[in-house]
Amino acid sequence: MEKPTSPETRVAQYDFGMIGLGVMGRNLALNIADRGYSVVGFDKDQDKAQALEQESRQRNILSVRELRAFVGALKTPRAILLLVPAGPAVDAVIEELIPVLSAGDLLADCGNSHFSDTDRRTRRLEEAGLHFLGVGVSGGEAGARFGPSIMPGGDREAFERIAPMLQAISAKVNGEHCMGWLGPRSAGHYVKMVHNGIEYALMQLLAETYHLLKEAGGLDNDELHALFSRWNQGPLQSFLLEITAAIFARADDLSPGRLIDRIKASAKQKGTGMWTSQNALDLHIPVPAIDMAVAQRDLSALADERHIANTLHTLHLSGDPADKESLSAPLEQALEFAAIVTYAQGLSLLHHASQAYGYGLQLAEVARIWRGGCIIRAALLEDIRAVYANKPDLPSLLLAPAFAQKLIALQAGARSVLKLAIDRGIPVPAFMACLSYYDAYRRDWLPANLIQAQRDFFGAHTYERTDRTGVFHTNWGQ
Ligand code: 6PG
């Protein structure tokens, strides 16, 4: 039975509405209420609505399962946050809301929506006289509850209406909030998409590091825990490294040993990393570390095929365990090297996408927001922020002298680790993608003259010359 409309819902007294009370929506609602705002939550799913209701006793929270009661409970002009699964569910909610909202009301989609959907929805809602914001939110369950990193985009004036609340609920680093308007239309969701692409690549690099240490170094879970924890005290300090260290220490509740050894090694994905690669290809901006991370998740999922291949391609490349200490030092360098190159690729995509889509992104602001609350937060982002604060239009982090110096110092470690991986047959495609990108990017000359010659040979596609201007074609067959 539908819960009867309570007296509260007849009075428009709530500051914010939250549609979608799954893990992220419920925790964000609680976070908002903790900051002194009143929140009305809406979910058609009784269990989800009840889960929030149980938390509502001491707080200024109301949970309803009827849309009109929800809309009626909100102060006008209304401000409603959506946290429903990306895709058709967002459109369905929007279409249900349009007839019951009033001109000037504001919707903020806080899910991982594709940026092109956000652009389309912005136009749709504008036609209906409503404001729409695409807001990237990162930090998972704990972040939503106690301080996420927030990446809003859309109409600036509409943003200003909810900015104090977003500021209040966001993560803080050295007293600065990890939230800031990023640009018009889908700018916020675009930045969140690239955040996730970087997230995929960093996770893949850590997984490759684990593979090398486990297989070539023979490290057990305790040693892995100790080493990753130690690295997390240095320049590699980051959320993903911290949780990776913790994962190795976690006992299994269901059987003896560590949980990590009982988890099926086939990765899943919701698609945001793939979207980053797809869009980077559309814009002709290389992000190979992200591409490889997506490809490796896909390859990991082809478990049956890999099983057959394993019986066919029998190679004996294992060798004696590498000395643990002499493996860990270059690997730490390799990881720092690859992390820098990964951020550089993601930021380069943002730089070019900002031009292509007219976002006007400030990359110093992006790095500032990413320093806390989000999944890719890392000590490194402070230095990245400093670079872009000085040179906002720098096309690549690799063109910053401070980072050039860092990479020159680190690349030898990366090379030695990759040689070992190749000799042992351990796949390290994300590391290789980072090193090859670096080696290609830092060169004046690449063998693309041959590509041009080939194109002209078989397709008369023409080429340019180094010694004179114009476009040339050669009759190669003669
Ligand atoms: C975040 C995460 C989050 C992400 C999922 C997992 O910033 O909090 O990036 O938004 O979507 O945690 O994504 P996959 O299922 O694609 O790995």
List keywords for this structure.
alpha/beta, globular, N-(1-d-carboxylethyl)-l-norvaline Dehydrogenase, domain 2, 3 domains, single chain, Rossmann fold, 478 residues
Catalogue the unreliable spans. 1-10
Shape: globular
Proper CATH architecture of the largest domain:
Orthogonal Bundle
**Structure ligands:** 6-phosphogluconic acid
CATH superfamily of the largest domain: N-(1-d-carboxylethyl)-l-norvaline Dehydrogenase, domain 2
Figure out the total of helices.
20
Arithmetic mean pLDDT: 95
Q: What is the rounded distance between the termini? A: 84 Å
| Number of domain modules | 3
Question: What structural class do the secondary elements suggest?
Answer: alpha/beta
Q: Approximately what portion of the residues adopt beta-strand conformation? A: 5-15%
The top level CATH class name of the largest domain: Mainly Alpha
Order of helices and strands: HEHEHEHEHEHEHEHEEHHHHHHHHHHHH
Main sheet characteristics: 7 strands, mixed
- Rg result: 25 Å
The strand count comes to 9
Order of strands in the sheet with most strands = 3-2-1-4-5-6-7
Examine the coordinates and then state which fold CATH places here, giving the name of the CATH topology of the largest domain: N-(1-d-carboxylethyl)-l-norvaline Dehydrogenase, domain 2
Helix content: 55-70%
Molecular structure report:
With 478 residues, the protein is an alpha/beta fold. It folds into three domains: 9-185, NAD(P)-binding Rossmann-like Domain (Rossmann fold, 3-Layer(aba) Sandwich); 192-441, N-(1-d-carboxylethyl)-l-norvaline Dehydrogenase, domain 2, CATH 1.10.1040; 449-478, Single alpha-helices involved in coiled-coils or other helix-helix interfaces, CATH 1.20.5. Helix content is 55%, strand content 8%. The chain has 20 helices and nine strands. The strands form two sheets. The protein has a seven-stranded mixed sheet, sandwiched between helices. A two-stranded antiparallel ribbon has the order 8-9. Strand 5, helix 6 and strand 6 (131-138) form a beta-alpha-beta unit. Helix 10 runs antiparallel to helix 11 and helix 15 (324-357) crosses helix 18 (401-424). The N and C termini lie far apart (84 Å). Residues 1-10 have low confidence and may be disordered. Bound molecules: 6-phosphogluconic acid.
